Amino acid sequence: MAPTVQRQTANALIDAFNSMSIPDIISFRAPGCMRQILPYSLNYPSQSNDAYRDTLRSLLPAFRNFSLTLYEIIEDVEQRKIVMHLRARADTAAGEYANEYMWVLRFDEQGKISDQKEYVDVGVNRDFFPKLQAALTSIKNSKSAQSANAVAPRTSVP
């Protein structure tokens, strides 16, 4: 039996993350799709596609060799829902990134993701992300300093 459209979308989403293609990641989402990081105790606001794109763009400079591995997938065709157990690994400016996720994806009639609930490893969120934020700030400050120290071209004075 051929995979459903929503299963094809879920597989393509994993491929897009593995190639770190932000345009592709966003392309699988319906225009009104919202992403919610859970548990709610982390107090993350829901993200629209634009906010999610901005988040991915802000994190991209710190990540290398990102890989997302699917451990288990459960699909409810009638409800247009997929649940995936995933593990992420990457080299980052703050050291090795290793996280575990449970994604609950709902799909519209065209097979686009209409809602995303993303359960994250609270320990990784608590312990790793402050280090990553500090590394990203350092990268940003380094680029700003390089720009400020760039030599301006000389102009001749008549």
Topology readout:
Blueprint: H1 5-18, H2 22-27, E1 29-38, H3 49-59, E2 63-76, E3 81-92, E4 95-107, E5 113-120, H4 122-127, H5 129-149
3D structure, described in words:
The protein is an alpha+beta fold and 158 residues long. The chain has helices at residues 5-18, 22-27, 49-59, 122-127, 129-149, and strands spanning 29-38, 63-76, 81-92, 95-107, 113-120. The chain has a 5-stranded mixed β-sheet.
Helix content: 25-40%
CA-CA gap between termini:
79 Å
Order of helices and strands: HHEHEEEEHH
Spans of 5+ residues with little confidence (pLDDT < 50)?
Answer: 151-158
Task: Count every helix, treating DSSP H or I runs of 4 or more residues as helices.
Answer: 5
Inertia-based shape: elongated
The average pLDDT is 90
Query: How many strands appear in the DSSP assignment?
Result: 5
Task: Compose a concise summary of this entry.
The N and C termini lie far apart (about 80 Å).
Attribute tags:
158 residues, alpha+beta, 5-stranded mixed sheet, 37% helix
